[in-house]
Batch of 2 targets.
Target 1
Amino acid sequence: MPSTRPLHGQVALVAGATRGAGRGIAIELAATGAVVWCTGRSAGGNAATPGRPETLEQTVELIRTGGGEARAERCDHTDEAQVQALLERVRAESGRLDILVNDVWGGDALIDWTAKFWQIDSTAVRTLTERAILSHWTTAKYAAPLMVEAGRGLIVEVTDGETPGYRGQWLYDFVKSSVIRLGYAMAWDFVGTGVTALTVTPGFLRSEHVLQHFGVTEANWRDAIEKDPTFAESETPRFIGRGIAALAADPHVASKSGLCLHACQLAHEYGLTDLDGRVPKFWAALDRWIDGQIANGVAPDAHERWIGRARYGHIHLDPTYHDRALRYAERYDLQDVGAGLKPA
């Protein structure tokens, strides 16, 4: 019978463990036996993100309540000196690092979904590049030597969306696709070292921010399905956490080096569910909704057109979606785009 704590004795660092996916990942890594260093800026009673009350100490308390072991360490991952000092503490106090999860984001307030690339403020671009790309590289830079020296380890980049297509807004697309590239490129540098790097994405994540946006809590989240039917296939932050914990416990995880994997995909492979026993399938639900709109024969309204074009952008470079992309191109007037924007 498989152990319920397969990561016992291992040490993990979750950068960006204050809320959202990072918190869910930290909880699940601890639940499977890892000692988790929870890092980020919101610590010591100081919530660093305006409008968000969550802190690292709250994450650690949730872990300890569940019987896990964790510690909160304040670290601004955009500050190289702080990151270097953090990893020196990990080396000195834990003596090893088996798992690094890079989930630093800090971009919700910086993304204007209506802005074209030439309308985006340069400060926002520089800030988010530093927060959500360079912070990941810096943290991996100082974590990697501990793993390479030991001849083992796993680095997980957390992004949004596994397809190579467009994510609907230039800055968002630039950051999230760059994170996938980080995982892929690091995997090449790790060849022959025993260390694995890859990327994982959630689906429709019920983060604290998303719940607040819909005006619900985790207790009554299904009330928001009336506003957005696809919300029925949303997932808790623990779902991606369970997938990453399963990856970390997989003795053959190196076979996945360089890949970008979806939480739903991991759930099917490792026999996992979300907290309510389901396996959420957001993209399949969204495609069913769009197919239903096409089938009803009514011309698309502005809302459907925005969603349909966004979904086409996601999938058009993936040949497995070729026929679907053709239908969406016809429905949403995307037939006359340039060759690089057509269905693969």
Note: The chain has two domains: 11-270, 283-341.
Target 2
Amino acid sequence: MALERLRASLAECPVVRFGEYEYFVHPITDGIPLGRPEVLDEVLTELARIADWSRCDKIVTAESMGFPLASGVALRVRKPYVFVRKRRYGLPGEVSLKQTTGYSKTDMFINNVHPGDRVVFVDDVISTGGTLLSIVKALRTIGAEVVDILIVFEKTRERTRMEKELGLRIKTLMKVDVVGGKLVERT
């Protein structure tokens, strides 16, 4: 069965609260509990499989847990990657954006994306959609074309609304919910 290791890893996930927000802690999303190479390999293999990489010039991800995903997929599909950072570098062409999630607000900065670049956005989880919406809008402001969106965990029930707002399909590997303080797969 596809993603059997990822599915089995859900049982080990603690859930913590940030105010009213229930945040699940998983090796793919947080590096805690201990990350297993076989789970990461399974996730990277599936992410590499579900996109049309012929239309991609660069892989873009957000700091910080997208880093192992984007770099791992980049090795498989032989495309360069860009990390959207929470730190300003002041480099020529740097673009800033505001990111709002279910539990924080921060500034983020994009470097090495240029007008005409065709990018695939890869990230660990979509929950409120704040990170995804902010980054896609900023990439479009630059003049880049977002050709695909790949997310490991879908913790939202707002995907259809976000897809309409972005005009793009969001591809996720697994839908999850927090139920009774535990992370479970949603079917």
Note: Residues 37-49 form the longest helix (13 residues).
